[in-house]
User: Fold these one by one.
Assistant:
Number 1:
Amino acid sequence: MVEYRIDRRSGVATYLQIVQQTKQALRMGLLEPGDRLPTAREVVESTAINPNTVLKAYRELEREGLVEARRGLGTFVRATLGTGPADSPLRGELTDWARRARAAGLDREDVSALFTSVLKEHFEGDDA
């Protein structure tokens, strides 16, 4: 089951963080069709956010056809994204790179900014 982490300083709306983290879990193969998402109550207890925010995120995911709400049972994954890059050899290379970046004194925000700039450079104009 996915565990959401909310960054209140990111400038990204909380519901969008839930949507993005769910999509990332789908791309990484951490969530698969049939898996149940945490209930709104479980998310609220672990993140201290408003239940309506969780429901808004889940409605957005449902609108995109990625999940479906089943009354009385919960919200379940309907579709996956990507082809499972969790098993990609590139993941190991990226893990090694992240370790080197940390050893070089970069913090999480530095690494994120560097990675984002490289993504923009190489994927400019893509919808990815």
Number 2:
Amino acid sequence: MISTTKNKFLFPLAIVLAAAVGVAGSAFFLMPRMEMNHGAERNKEIIAASRDGIKDLLAQGRYKCCLDKPCSYCFADPEHQDRELVCDCLEDIMNGKHPCGECIGEILEGNGNPLISEYFASSIAEKVGESHLQTLKQIIAEKYGMPAEKQF
């Protein structure tokens, strides 16, 4: 009789516990999704502010990027904040120095300023190693139509 009474209480108790765990678990798994939505809105605000800041620096002549659409790396990088030129990737490329990492990636994807494409391979090689120069020249030739023999 005692075991029957126990079973009568254990079964409903197990159902109540399962329901409580299910509700708590679903709330737990839904919470990150709500935070991501909040985060996405905040990211949009940050991106808009960054674009406005870059536009202001471009107008002042302090943001000289080597891409068709200026990168955001130099704008966000604290090392660049104390410089007269916040972004000097264009000057770096023209002087045979490597640009920032974002510019390197974008150049290799074909998003660099095509007017200076003959300088890309040697400037990037300064960072990744001269042993990659021929491969870089091939990539630049494919992406920009700049023959390898005309590149520096």
Number 3:
Amino acid sequence: MKYIAFLRGINVGGNRKVEMKKIRELFGSLGYTKVSTYINSGNVIFETKGKKQEIRKKIEASLKKEFGFDVLTLVKTEREIMFIADAIPKNWKNNKEQRADVAYLFPEVDLKKTINDLPVKKEFIDVRYIKGAIFWNVKRENVYKSHLVKIIGHKLYKSMTVRNINTARYLAENKE
């Protein structure tokens, strides 16, 4: 089965640097096949048998052993990633006029009510939930008015991993 692992919090702001080549090698050493990475933010595409929770534990333990720090990892099936990407309105873009992101949710916060707990001003941002993710779109001119940046300091932020919609769409369309 094809999976995507999101390695949370690596290569951000020059901290917790991890080379994608080393990640591919590590995943290969775990017996995973067809391993590839997409950009430097910790998106790993691979195939294996097994259950997501077992795969997650194995990856997190191996990353800790290899790099010396915890790397929270969210594992989604290819089908889940496609389901989420298909729910994003086609006219949402990540460009000069709009900012659109997907927050992939860890199981403990994968609930529709999670949207209501986010510190955003909904009059400036279109924010939606679908099983597995929350996604949003905001005009660039309203990013600060929307309080989108406050998500980073919020208690829920540690239970999600955010990617822009270009990445979300790429991962859903990737048929390697």
Number 4:
Amino acid sequence: MTIATDLLQRHFQTLVDDNAQWQTLIADDILWELAYAPALGHPARLLGRVEAVRHVSWFLGAVENFRFFDLKVYPFVDPEGAVAEVKAEGLIKPTGRIYHQDYVLFLRAAGGKIAFLREYFDPTRAAKALDTPILDLES
């Protein structure tokens, strides 16, 4: 196990179930890129602890019974890098819809903390669950 694979596993174990513990995993200057989030009106990048925690707090307030499962973590040769595939599901409280998602997450560690995340997910699934339009979609 490498530092990056350990951090990825702990990220998925604690993000929802023990958010205070998750916050200890992230660097103060974390950069979290959310490649497809702008399609939902969310930021493409979160820079720093404050923005990351605010976004996660919004997410945690919007979901219920959210869980990650079928986690697969792939280490890089560099022990500070890894990628993960994971499935997730939960209830979106404002809409009452079940959210099913597949995520791919790249992680780079620095100083034993999560310094960089790049997250990919299907914005169409999220839009349906959130009952929100996909922005900039040509009709």
